[in-house]
């Protein structure tokens, strides 16, 4: 018996007919790097949905990317901040029939957010927030101003230039962070202006009060209309290289309330996001970072019963929505090193 295959939209096909129909699709994890866990979450979700999903990956050097080897196919991409990035990714999506793009690193988010309509014009959906929340989350000074305006507790923050020119009342020691940094790059405790001057000479920095107390990440899922569907806090029990190595899901009302406050203040949030806080001794959380993408600890939320990857596929394919805030608490993640041999 011959099975007809027809393209219903970019990256999405349907084989068979009636009750025997089965959907298939092609998606891209952009700047895939080491995000093997994320890729496996999408693969697991596709199996649950009965979807034949090809997961493609791209990276600056795919031959050095474990996720690219895990993917069904991999492609080289130019630097995310180069003028060639978006044209080449558009061309890749057209040539490969990609219908869903999931960005993974901060440096590519703005390019994708600004070009989202270009991808939509060729039938490819980019799972990224609007440009305004992406720009805010990428800039730690803008994040601090946003949180202050929204009335969300956060550490007092000034620019390094403010401190060097005697416009700051914050007392040392302080936490110094690159204004546009990510993955804990360049973060250090500074104790005097000489240290601040040396860091500011390399790139713009901000200075923040040092927060005490346990650290938490809250993973968030916004649907395509911008409505918050789920918030999953986990305690960061141990961190390595800026990513959680050991973590456990927890239900803490103040963190869930904070997620609601953030969602109310954000305009244009879409897909996966996360924020980080520290909890004071009196139980008050203080938010110090927002990421407009899948966080490194997302697989913990997924295994706890909040499969953002599945919900994203359901929206893309226009399947019945199952997003709900019904995840399990006390789910422990213990990460370990593994290796791929080529």
Largest sheet features:
7 strands, mixed
Q: What is the CA-CA span between the terminal residues?
A: 40 Å
State the domain count.
Answer: 3
What is the typical, i.e. mean, pLDDT?
93
- Oligomeric organization of the protein chains: single chain
Indicate the CATH topology of the largest domain: Rossmann fold
Query: Radius of gyration, Cα only, in angstroms?
Result: 21 Å
Helix content: 25-40%
Short summary:
This protein is of the alpha+beta class. It is built from twelve helices and 17 strands. The chain is 31% helix and 29% strand.
Description:
The protein has 342 residues and is of the alpha+beta class. The chain folds into three domains: 5-128, Rossmann fold, CATH 3.40.50; 156-208, ATP-grasp fold, A domain (Dna Ligase, domain 1, 2-Layer Sandwich); 212-334, ATP-grasp fold, B domain (D-amino Acid Aminotransferase, Chain A, domain 1, 2-Layer Sandwich). Helix content is 31%, strand content 29%. The chain contains twelve helices and 17 strands. Strands 1, 2, 3, 4, 5, 6 and 7 form a seven-stranded mixed sheet that branches. Strands 16-15-12-13-14-17 form a six-stranded antiparallel sheet. Strand 13 (228-240) and strand 14 form a beta hairpin. Helix 6 crosses helix 7. The longest helix has 13 residues, at 36-48. It starts with a strand and ends in an 8-residue tail after the last strand. The model is unreliable at 1-9 (pLDDT under 50).
């Amino acid at each position: 018996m011959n099975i007809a295959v027809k393209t219903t939209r970019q990256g999405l096909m349907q084989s068979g007919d009636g009750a025997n129909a089965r959907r298939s699709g092609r998606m891209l994890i952009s700047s895939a790097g080491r995000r093997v866990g994320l890729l496996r979450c999408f693969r697991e979700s596709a199996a649950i949905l009965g979807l034949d999903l090809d997961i493609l990956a791209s990276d600056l050097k795919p031959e050095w990317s474990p996720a690219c080897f895990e993917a069904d196919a991999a492609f080289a991409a130019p630097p995310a901040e180069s003028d060639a990035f978006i044209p080449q990714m558009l061309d890749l999506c057209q040539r490969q029939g990609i219908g869903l793009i999931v960005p993974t690193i901060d440096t590519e988010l703005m390019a994708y957010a600004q070009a989202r309509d270009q991808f939509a014009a060729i039938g490819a959906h980019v799972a990224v927030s609007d440009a305004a929340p992406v720009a805010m989350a990428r800039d730690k000074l803008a994040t601090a101003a946003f949180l202050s305006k929204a009335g969300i507790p956060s550490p007092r923050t000034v620019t390094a230039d403010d401190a060097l020119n005697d416009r700051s009342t914050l007392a040392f020691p302080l936490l110094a962070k690159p204004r546009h940094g990510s993955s804990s790059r360049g973060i250090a405790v500074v104790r005097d202006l000489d240290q601040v001057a040396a860091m500011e000479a390399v790139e713009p920095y901000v200075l923040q009060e040092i927060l005490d107390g346990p650290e938490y990440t809250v993973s968030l899922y916004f649907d395509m209309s911008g409505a918050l569907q789920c918030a999953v806090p986990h305690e960061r029990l141990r961190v390595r290289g800026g990513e959680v190595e050991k973590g456990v899901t927890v239900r803490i009302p103040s963190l869930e309330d904070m997620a609601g406050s953030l969602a109310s203040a954000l305009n244009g949030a879409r897909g996966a996001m996360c924020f980080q806080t520290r909890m004071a001794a009196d139980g008050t959380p203080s938010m110090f970072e927002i990421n407009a993408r899948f966080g490194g600890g997302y697989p913990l939320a997924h295994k706890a019963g909040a499969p953002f990857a599945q919900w994203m596929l359901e929206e893309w394919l226009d399947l019945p929505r199952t997003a709900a805030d019904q995840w399990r608490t006390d789910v422990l993640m213990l990460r370990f090193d593994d290796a791929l041999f080529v």
